[in-house]
Write a structure and sequence with these properties.
- Helix 6 (152-168) crosses helix 7 and helix 17 (521-534) packs across helix 18.
- It is built from 27 helices and 34 strands.
- The structure holds adenosine monophosphate and magnesium ion.
- The site of magnesium ion (MG) has 7 residues, from loops.
């Protein structure tokens, strides 16, 4: 007996109902045998033969006669034995070698976007979504396949992998297909488990005609079939994918014909299984998915997209694969129309200063500007700007001439901007806090003929070969006071049109020479008009002006209030709020700077709105801000320098939930999220953000090539222009956009894209953590590791234990929430994150984690004095942990820094250590000992009590 014979030894794992399995079974017409089995015991193929043989044997056995089937030649144990011996025996090395070659550097995981974060341990919560193609459609597919000597299954595989490529943004697509191992005659009739999974990897990289791609898929199938004897388990053993309970090894997506052996179980451990079934009615495509990962709507979308792709393939099999349409008309309309910014009226022919002049005429006496003790009403500000404008005109400024502004933050700075615009010029911000070299690059690039400055700065500028060059007239406004007072204070004749250049914004770009974005009046006016609609008069009553003019945030905080009757409160920078609490209603800054303000309780009592922009906004920060009684709402504003100030936004008056979006396009803005081939990506799928509409700048200054690369014709809006941002984003179902990071800063670990922002958000939500940054560090040419940087919340004590506890807590939280490959390999605790000049986290300035492999062992300070020295070095060098044996210069110190530290130490110790002593032994211990010698004994160290030390955890896993 074959299958039936096996039933007895399967009794332990197979539970048969309707009768105990006995020598004699009698079924009457109403009774039916039911069989329930574990998938490790039997497979679908087996059940079918079991059913057949059962009835063959049943009749004779029920009459107590011998059954017709001969005993089984090979028992499962024998097969298992054979399988175990495979590598030496029937599975030749050639077979294994094929798979090892095929699957070298296999991505650890597919890159399909998930609706729910992948849990550290994956549970399977199955659901199915089906879609049907009618008989003529199936017929078309069959004919197409037959014409290329391919099977329908191969054709479906080709289309399915294209679907996966388009949804995951990857070209390296891995799909598992179930096969039966019953190619060996002896086991063919057995009812045990012989299913195997073949791992098929296809390359969707080239944009080849679909029929060529089908040829590629077919070749993979034929190869795989001839090497199919290698059991999946053996492959896993050989390839050693990292053990990770968050996903199945090697392959997580399956494809099967529903009537093929093994299909019924293909879904069990997978993220997604497509089972296809044909019938007289047509083709049924069932997507079985893990509901712990995907939402039903997402899978329904994928199913629709596959059906659309299949129809397109039949319609035009020679179409290049990435040009095949996948979205239906409704979806395109949704993304290209419904999700777009409102079309709103704005004064298209107005200028920035024209809006201000009109406001000054409406409310001449209203407060316009506050700086320290200076206040100016609208009419005062306007008159001073007019006087300077008349003077500049007389100097020849006009017709779009570029005028540099290098002024300290003051009323004069705002006067200068308005005056340049009124004179018909465009301003070029030159922040005096920037290093000379950076300013020189900008002066050189913009070739300005005038530079407005003030007496003390003029001396510095004049002494510099570029900044003080002859071609540029330095005009010190405070020197010109008397001359200016003689100028007329009436509005000058309009000298600029809406399409004329208004200002430059320099962006650093990715390395190299800074480049200037040319913004015209109309670009800014569209944003200013939006601001007037979205921010109330009360909210704009007193707006903090804290951003450098070199950062385009300043455009919002200056010109939105000044066009709508509000006042501008000028301070040095956002950190000025730590020293004083001016009366302001709106704060406009970057999240990192705001974080520091919240931690210090420095959000002024009058603040109604907080605008945040420039970097990913942690949800916890929104929560904490909203909890402040004075704050009514928090706005996340997304911007790119190439689009005037803000491009998209969202206003939260409530807790935003787990993630914060960058909202919707501003009025008169258009957002496109496109794949590498310029096609709109589906909802939920990552693509590059392109911005079109009223804010798109004129281009870069003096960079025709770069301008042509970044500023493109809008393919969806005839006559429109759009700009590529280099940022990744995706549409949410509600039409808001998720920001997914810079395209050039994506972390890819083991072939999987890692969403650093998501890890950061998790960390920032941990108790005791104030802010978190995760970076991918390149440790070897092709290896990256994640490094997490944490800053403790203000309430956490500064002792060493606190740092270690902080990391332990954060690590535990992450381990239970995210899969293995998203776990940081190194942890660094910093007292504060390094910030750029514009207040964003300066990722380049983050210290490398201490790497004990380099031989720099960490020795903790033993005395108070050593601790004091180490702490000072840590602060001054920006190094997270300094051990007593670390060399000052090896840590990046230089002589001026050394002298500064020496002076501080000498002050604290009350004795002056000669600098040669420092340089002779520039380690923490060496310097501490030198002081001890000077003071005549070790005892002095104990007099130092107040050492404020933020300890850093040394991670035992770094390096592993
Ligand atoms: P910048 O180069 O300083 O002009 O900054 C522009 C870049 O900052 C954008 O390309 C984004 O990568 C990032 N950015 C701006 N606003 C946001 C925001 N609200 N959320 C996340 N990232 C942002
Ligand atoms: Mg911008």
């Amino acid at each position: 007996m074959n299958a039936l014979h096996n039933l007895k030894h399967l009794a332990a794992v197979v539970r048969a109902h309707a009768a105990h399995l006995p020598e004699r079974i009698a079924f009457n017409d109403d009774a039916a045998p039911a069989l329930k089995a574990q998938h490790t015991a039997t497979d679908g193929w087996s059940l079918e033969s079991l059913r057949r043989e059962f009835w063959q044997q049943y009749a004779p056995l029920s009459r107590a006669e011998p059954g017709p089937l001969p005993p089984l030649a090979v028992q499962f144990a024998g097969y298992a034995q054979w399988q175990r011996n495979c590598p030496q025996g029937e599975v030749p090395d050639r077979q294994l070698a094929y798979w090892e070659r095929q699957l070298a550097d296999l991505p650890a995981l597919h890159n399909l976007p998930l609706d729910h974060a992948r849990p550290a341990v994956l549970s399977f919560d199955g659901a199915v979504h089906g879609i049907a193609l009618d008989a003529p459609a199936l017929d078309g597919l069959r004919k197409l396949a037959a014409g290329r000597q391919a099977s329908l299954f191969m054709l479906l595989h080709a289309a399915f992998s294209l679907l996966l490529a388009r949804h995951s943004g990857s070209d390296d697509i891995v799909v598992g297909i179930p096969v039966t191992a019953r190619r060996n005659k002896p086991v063919e009739g057995s009812s045990d488990y012989f299913a195997n999974t073949l791992v098929l990897r296809t390359d969707c990289g080239g944009n080849v005609p679909f029929i060529d791609y089908l040829g590629h898929v077919k070749a993979r199938h034929l190869d795989a079939r001839s090497y199919q004897q290698v059991p999946f388990e053996l492959l896993v053993e050989r390839l050693q994918p990292a053990r990770d309970a968050s996903h199945a090894p090697l392959v997580q997506i399956m494809l099967a014909m529903a009537d093929a052996p093994g299909a019924e179980a293909a879904g069990t451990k997978c993220d997604l299984t497509l089972a296809a079934a044909t019938s007289a009615d047509g083709l049924q495509l069932n997507f079985a998915y893990n509901a712990a990962l995907f939402k039903p709507a997402t899978v329904a979308r994928m199913a629709r997209h596959l059906a659309h792709l299949l129809r397109a393939i039949v319609a035009d099999p020679a179409c290049p694969i990435h040009a095949l349409p996948m979205l239906d008309d409704e979806e395109r309309r949704q993304m290209l129309e419904r999700f777009q910014g409102r079309v709103a009226d704005y004064p298209r022919e107005a200028t920035i200063h024209g809006l201000f002049e009109a406001q000054a005429a409406r409310t001449p006496a209203a407060l316009a500007l506050v700086h320290a003790r200076t206040t100016l009403s609208y009419v005062e500000l306007n008159r001073r700007a007019n006087q300077l404008a008349h003077y500049l005109r007389a100097q020849g400024v006009g017709g779009g001439s570029l005028v540099g502004v290098c002024l300290r933050r003051s009323a004069a700075m705002v006067v200068a901007l308005m005056a340049i615009l009124k004179a018909g010029g465009a301003y070029v911000p030159l922040d005096p806090n920037y290093p000379d070299q950076r300013l020189a690059d900008m002066v050189d690039d913009s070739d300005i003929a005038w530079l407005l400055t003030q007496r003390d700065l003029a001396q510095r500028l004049a002494g510099h070969p570029v900044l003080g060059r002859e071609r540029t007239a330095l005009l010190a406004l405070d020197v010109l006071d008397e001359t200016l007072a003689l100028q007329p204070y009436t509005d000058p004749e309009p000298a600029a049109a809406a399409g004329d250049l208004a200002y430059l914004i320099y962006t650093s770009g990715s390395g190299g020479r800074p480049r200037a974005v040319r913004i015209c009046h109309r670009n800014a006016v569209a944003m200013i008009a939006w601001g007037g609609r979205e921010y109330s008069g009360e909210e704009l009553r007193r707006v903090l002006c804290c951003n450098s003019l070199n950062v385009d945030l300043s455009v919002f905080e200056l010109f939105v209030p000044l066009s709508h009757g509000g006042a501008v409160v000028v301070v040095e920078n956002a950190m000025a709020l730590l020293d004083g609490s001016p009366d302001i209603t709106l704060l406009n800054t970057v999240p990192s700077a705001c974080r520091a303000l919240v931690d210090s309780g420095a959000i002024p009592i009058g603040v109604r709105v907080v605008n945040l922009s420039g970097e990913a906004l942690p949800p916890v920060l929104v929560d904490e801000l909203i909890e402040l009684p004075q704050v009514r709402r928090v706005c996340n504003l997304y911007r790119a320098a190439e689009d005037a100030t803000y491009s998209s936004w969202i206003s939260y008056a409530d807790r935003p939930g787990e993630s914060v979006s960058i909202g919707r396009p501003l009025d008169n803005r258009r957002f496109y999220i496109l794949d590498a081939r310029g096609q709109p990506v589906p909802l939920g799928v990552a693509g590059e953000i392109y911005i079109g509409g009223a804010g798109v700048a004129l281009g870069y200054l003096n960079r025709p090539q770069l301008t042509a690369e970044h500023f493109l014709d809008d393919p969806f809006r005839p006559g429109g222009r759009m700009v590529r941002t280099g940022d990744l984003g995706c549409w949410r179902e509600d039409g808001t956009v998720d920001y997914l990071g810079r395209e050039d800063a994506q972390a890819t670990l083991r072939g999987c894209r890692v969403d650093l922002a998501r890890i950061e958000a998790r960390l920032a939500a941990c108790a005791g953590v104030s802010a978190a940054v995760v970076t991918a560090m390149v440790t070897a040419p092709d290896r990256q590791r994640l490094v997490a940087y944490l800053t403790p919340a203000a309430a956490t004590g500064p002792t060493g234990r606190a740092g270690a506890d902080l990391v332990a807590g954060a690590r535990a939280a992450l381990q239970s929430a995210l899969p293995d490959f998203m776990q940081p390999a190194a942890w660094v605790v910093l007292p504060a994150l390094p910030l750029t000049a514009s207040g964003k986290v300066d990722r380049k300035a983050l210290p490398a984690p201490r790497d004990t492999a380099t031989g720099l062992a960490y020795v903790t300070p033993a005395t108070r004095l050593e601790e004091l020295v180490a702490t000072l070095w840590e602060r001054q060098l920006g190094v997270p942990t300094v051990g007593v044996e670390d060399d000052f210069f090896a840590l990046g110190g230089d002589t001026p820094l050394a002298l500064g530290i020496l002076a501080k130490l000498s002050l604290i110790m009350g004795v002056a250590l000669p600098s040669p002593e420092f340089f002779a032994a520039p380690t923490v211990r060496g310097v501490a000992q030198a002081f001890e010698r000077l003071c005549g004994g070790a005892g002095i160290a104990n007099d130092i009590v107040a050492v404020h030390r933020i300890a850093t955890c040394r991670n035992p896993r770094w390096p592993p």
